[in-house]
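As agreed, record minuted below.
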Amino acid sequence: MLDFEKEKLLRELRRRKPKRVLVQLAEGIKKHAPEISGWIEPLGIEVIFSGETCWGACSIAVQEAEALNCDLIIHFGHAEFISSKFPILYIEVKDLLDLKPILKKSLKELNKFKTIGLSFSIQHRHDLKNIVSFYRKNGKKVILSKKVGNVAYEGHIVGCQYGGLKAIQEDVEAFLIIGNQFHSMGASLALEKPVVLVDVYNDNVRSMRGLREKILKQRAISIEKLREAENVAIIVEIKPGQKFGSPKFLLQKLKEAGKNAIVITMSEMTPDKVMNFYNIDAFIELACPRIALDDFYKYEKPILTFRESLVALGIKSWEETLKTGFV
């Protein structure tokens, strides 16, 4: 049910004439690598697939491509997020699911709201006209989230930036996210209005309110543990799109607070890597902020985002964080 935009891919490759390409596939579509290789190799192009994780367009594998002497990265499954001097071809991939049944199901959850803010994950952008038309025919006023920050389109949602939703918050009664829990959970933590998820892959429509309260309790616990921590590590990832906050600033503030603080760099943050620093009481990660929020149970030690660390250090209030969001 996926459209990999094969014609666009081949057209661009014939135009750009690369000799060797590095192909990045989002996690859910890596199984299609042999099929994609079969399209590209007949053009006389050498194909190498990245086996590293790729959760978003912030994970552009420029270092891999340069090390392998590739002259183009083909990135499947995400829209452009950051600019790069290295040539990149983005293939967004369309999900050809029939959304009408689940949109009908969502009307019950939305019955209290007349004006809704709408955002979608990139796989559904091609279906936007039909989605908006459906809700308008059913008496809803639809306002798309704004194109703010690094999002590629009006209505587009990514996991670490919610400024486009906040920009319309005063104009809507609730938000509707077409996609999955990853995007809707982040939205619920960033917004004060109700958030409803249309989970197209699990055929489920649900409010995010209960999950939001659960996550907020977890974040409050982690913040308190950082306040009490003696040894603290700041984790910096080297991916070009994952730099949130200043390690130098944070290191200074932690030391002023009487903590033993160090900076650690990682190509990708995992529980196994963190576990080796067993004497550290708490970690602040300046990579993707969703690691701290989504992977709470994977880590034995508290992991905090940059903004949460500012709360623990008394630089920012909890109330302000609730308004601005954790990412």
The radius of gyration is 21 Å. The chain has a mean pLDDT of 93.
